[in-house]
Write a structure and sequence with these properties.
Two copies of one chain form a homodimer. Chain A contains six helices and six strands; from the N terminus they run βαβαβαβααβαβ. Chain A is an alpha/beta fold. Chain A has a six-stranded parallel β-sheet with strand order 3-2-4-5-1-6, sandwiched between helices. At the A-B interface, β1, α1, α2 and β6 of A face β1, α1, α2 and β6 of B.
Chain lengths: ~170, ~170
């Protein structure tokens, strides 16, 4: 079966990795696609805006992460949740139920070694051929870049927080 | 009056400049902000998905461009439309009616010299202090970067079209 779908990665230290993924979510919605979002590691106030938009558009949204590790008070639980998030995502990749899956901040599950890079690569390669995949997060590993079709590195030229301006509601989350 | 708003630029040759801006549009909508979009140069099939999303969310959308210059059969009309788009955007910047203005592909009006960089810089600096601004497009001039708060360069690591895969409905537009 010829693969009809593509894999996109937004990586790098600059702003725009997740916001670009949620822009693509909007395009996919506009085309009548079935979209799913798995949010891997951000909790709390982050992604509230995106989640509200997804709910408004009837887009399936799973928050399975437990915040970034440096916020964690129970590392075993964090690791278990991170692994579980990947297992759920992997099932969705294989299911054939989605035209687009957004795996937001997936790279951190590999960076913190909750999930092996080879497992993620296999999940991507063995996905249902119809399912496009959008992955975000800093430090995408080379093996993942190798199996992707479109990879953008968001490079910070300057950022408001360097001038002491805090992350803004409505813009950053 | 202290400025409460910021200016963001997405530039570079990689994918994600406009999609990131439309992700931010979704966040701003989720917060109840008043958002306006001025689409400078893309016409035709491009931005159909984003426009549909904006309509669904009751976000004001203006398409004033006439496609990229290399598609133009009437250059004088193209230039006049590009200039007019900037004049409309400039009024909106000053009006105080918006929490966020997205000036999509604005950089091309400067690249093709329809509008002087200094005019755009003045419009940004003299905007209503409440209005956040998100500008997209390749080749943002240094003078514009100088007055921005957050600037991201989208760098192409790889792109599906390099393997002959055409721009996909639902992903790219």
């Amino acid at each position: 079966m010829a693969r009809k779908s593509i894999v996109l990665i937004n990586t790098g230290d600059g702003k725009g990795k997740s916001s670009s993924a949620f822009g693509v979510m909007g395009r996919a919605w506009a085309r009548g696609w079935t979209v799913g979002v798995v949010q891997f590691v951000k909790g709390g106030k982050w992604k509230i805006g995106e989640k509200k938009l997804a709910e408004h558009l009837d887009i399936e949204w799973h928050t399975l992460g437990d915040g970034f590790t440096w916020e964690s008070t129970d590392m075993d639980e964090t690791i278990a949740k991170g692994r579980h998030a990947w297992e759920v995502a992997n099932e969705k990749l294989a299911s054939g139920d989605y035209d687009l899956l957004i795996l937001d901040e997936l790279t951190y599950t590999m960076k913190y070694e909750w999930v092996e890079v080879a497992e993620v690569v296999a999940g991507i390669e063995n996905r249902n051929p119809k399912t496009n995949v959008m992955i975000t997060g800093r430090g995408a590993p080379q093996e993942l870049i190798d199996v992707a079709d479109t990879v953008t590195e968001m490079v910070k030229v300057k950022h408001a927080y360097d001038q002491g301006i805090k992350a803004m509601k409505g813009i950053e989350f």
